[in-house]
Write a structure and sequence with these properties.
This protein has 284 residues and is mainly β. Helix content is 10%, strand content 50%. It has 3 helices and 23 strands. It has helices at residues 6-19, 61-67, 122-128, and strands at 31-40, 45-53, 56-60, 71-76, 79-84, 87-92, 97-100, 103-106, 112-114, 117-121, 132-136, 143-148, 154-159, 162-167, 173-177, 183-186, 198-206, 212-220, 226-234, 237-247, 260-263, 267-271, 278-283. It is elongated and about 75 Å long.
């Protein structure tokens, strides 16, 4: 395949690599597929087949990059890039030299274009993703990579014509009207969001009387402790807000009697559906 064909083929290539991670028939007698086990800091463990060629194990550049939350693309006909916020990895066809976060790095081998996939040496790619090759099985060729980072920096949700977004660098809830583009920001006080150690989820619930409840849960992956942010909206206006830190168990917000329970570090407030009025305050 000529270099100038890359840019037109890369979208199809990536889709194929996701849909068919176990590869296709090899076309080079000096190359074969071996198992790659990827262990991620956020708790994921993935298994795919990867390339072993001329004694060197390679990793799929676009597949592993996408799994890490990075955006992939082509900067030119022979330059591929993975990037997100401050993370940037660039490789060039025909060159052993790559760029990682502005630094020149020798990969040891040039990138390989093999069966419509782009591969780079796995030791380089693991290190670029802040991980390492932990083990290589000499009998099967299986490679185990550990400590790979997740660079996801934005969390999204949508409800009734509004987009809700949290950026890890800022930690506030940004609300955008999809029709007018008008934006509003609500401080949450979530600092230094780390998706490798914590899980952040955004959920939406509607009450019987059309109040929108947005819950944001920031949970420690190891301990299970979580901070619960609850916001209550009426006609898109924020009428109630609470945050409880270090919860051990899940908290039921919508009660069977139709009321809403908002929990903070000291109290539980019983809220009337429809009006948002506080009916009762119970000490925790």
């Amino acid at each position: 395949m000529k270099m100038k064909q890359w840019k037109h083929a890369v979208a199809i290539i990536f889709i194929m690599s996701v849909l068919f991670p176990l590869g296709v028939q090899q076309s080079d007698a000096a190359a074969k597929y071996v198992e790659l086990e990827s262990q991620w800091e956020d708790g994921r463990i993935t298994h795919i087949q990867t390339l072993l060629k001329d004694g060197v194990t390679y990793g799929n550049f676009f597949t592993l990059g996408s799994d890490s939350g990075l955006v992939w693309g082509m900067e030119s006909d022979n330059t591929a890039v993975l990037k997100k916020d401050k993370k940037r990895i660039v490789v060039h066809m025909g060159s052993r030299m790559a760029e990682v976060d502005g630094r020149q790095v020798d990969m040891g081998r040039e990138p390989v274009w093999y069966n419509s996939h782009l591969y780079v040496p796995i030791r380089f790619l693991a290190s670029a993703l802040d991980g390492e090759v932990a083990n290589r099985d000499t009998k099967t060729g299986k490679i185990t990579v550990t400590g790979l980072n997740n660079y996801t920096d934005t969390f999204y949700g949508s409800a009734m014509g509004y987009n809700y977004m949290i950026r890890t660098a800022k930690g506030d809830l940004e609300i955008t009207n999809v029709y007018t583009g008008q934006k509003n920001s609500i401080p949450l006080g979530i600092k230094d969001i780390n998706v490798n150690t914590h899980k952040l989820t955004v959920n939406f619930k509607w009450t019987d009387k059309n109040l929108l409840i947005v819950t944001i849960e920031y949970a420690n992956r190891k301990s299970g402790d979580h901070d619960l942010h609850t916001l209550v909206f009426k006609d898109q206006g924020l009428i109630r807000k609470s945050v409880a830190h270090g919860l051990k168990e899940q908290h039921e917000i919508l009660k069977s009697d139709g009321t809403i329970q908002l929990v903070d570090d000291k109290n539980i407030r019983i809220i009337e559906d429809g009006t948002g009025n506080v009916l009762e305050v119970i000490a925790r």
